[in-house]
Amino acid sequence: MQESVQRIRTRAPSPRYSLVLPIYNEEEVLSRLVERISALIAKLDGETEVIFVDDGSRDRSVSYLRRMVAAEPSFRLIELSRNFGHQIAITAGMEAASGEAVIVMDADLQDPPEVVLDLVAKWKDGFEIVYAKRVRREGETWFKRFTASLFYRLLERMTPVDIPRDVGDFRLVGRKALDTFRRMPEHDRFVRGMFGWMGFRQAAVPFERPARTLGETKYPFWKMMRLAIHGIISFSERPLQLALLTGLAISAFALAFGGYAIVAWILDAGVIAGWTSTVVIVSLLIGINLFMTGVIGLYVGSIHAEVKRRPLYVVERLSGFDRPMRVASR
Ligand code: UDP
Ligand code: MG
Q1: Residue whose CA is at the smallest distance from ligand 1 atom 16
Q2: Which GO cellular component term is one of those annotated (predicted)?
Q3: Residue scoring higher pLDDT (62 or 291)
Q4: I need a labelling partner for 242 at 20 to 30 A (CA). Which of 31, 37, 189, 322 fits?
């Protein structure tokens, strides 16, 4: 798909801005979204293309988007062949984007379109990557906030890569960062980490994140967990080191305990009646052992996914890419 979009692209002049919006069952939000996005485009100081990436929606999102794309020259649509997940959907959108600056934002209006103007202003100050930082989050349960903050603290301690706290995928990236991103073919995609990894001049724009007013979250707890695990696995080797250290510590303990048992036996201190301690120690060790194997398994699984070299996503249909931009109204 990369080639085909790129081929089309050489014929059409590139816009200044590309907006990338991942969509997964968002039919309740779309008309409101299109309104707000259109208002935003009118305020941006250059031609803007809007790339909707349908991530295998099962509701009426696709038919609505197709109609929108047919009517509005600056809209484009990538339909993925199934649900590949948020991180892959934004990857597909960014790979197809041809703007000088590319902005990724959620479709549910929790990333307010107006904030894009602030991102753009910072970009013009010379920052290659401008991320939007949540200073307040409305309508989120304490559980979500608590687990999120725990996760970011943990990740911060575990990885040498600078991954800013309270930052999702709402960000603007310039051409250089985008080209770098395209050269990162990894399957375990934790996009916010990937942008942290690449360096460049980065800046934050604070914003208050409103609650989702239309539709409901497409990130149930298990998806969140998976994202968190992918984030840790692809940006930290600390779990492997911890497995090694724990193994070492337990071995040292076992050695000392064995020594003690032998000495006690030689001195005939009558220590045989130890069924409880045996059971406790054996089950504890088996538990730790399995856990460590699981940690290693996660990494092996990640290597396995990488080695297969499957494409990251499959495009079922593209629309709107093969036409010139509308002439800017200003
Ligand atoms: N999304 C997606 N694929 C998925 C899940 C979500 O493309 O498998 C999109 C979704 O439509 C939305 C964005 O990713 O535009 C963020 O999802 P959501 O708002 O549900 O996440 P939350 O804000 O609750 O973390
Ligand atoms: Mg949301």
Answers
A1: 106
A2: plasma membrane
A3: 62
A4: 189
d(CA 291, CA 293): 5
Q: How far is the CA of 23 from the centre of ligand 1 (A)?
A: 7
Q: Render pLDDT for 177-233 as a digit per residue (tens, 0 to 9).
A: 999 999 999 988 999 999 999 999 999 999 988 888 888 888 888 888 888 888 888
pLDDT for 4 = 58
| Rounded (10°) CA dihedral 70, 72, 76, 80 | -50
Using a CB cutoff of 5 Å, list residues around ligand 2, an ion: 106, 108, 110, 212
The model carries a pTM of 0.82
Model ipTM value: 0.95
Which ligand 1 atom sits nearest the alpha carbon of residue 110?
A: 23
- pLDDT number for residue 263: 84
Q: Look over the chain and give the mean of its residue pLDDT values, rounded to a whole number.
A: 87
Query: For the chain, what are the domain ranges?
Result: 17-141+161-215, 237-266+274-308
Mutate to test the pocket of ligand 1, among 218, 312, 313 (most ligand atoms within 8 A of CB): 218
Residue 115 has pLDDT above 60, yes or no: yes
Give me the CATH topology for the region 17-141+161-215: Spore Coat Polysaccharide Biosynthesis Protein SpsA; Chain A (3.90.550)
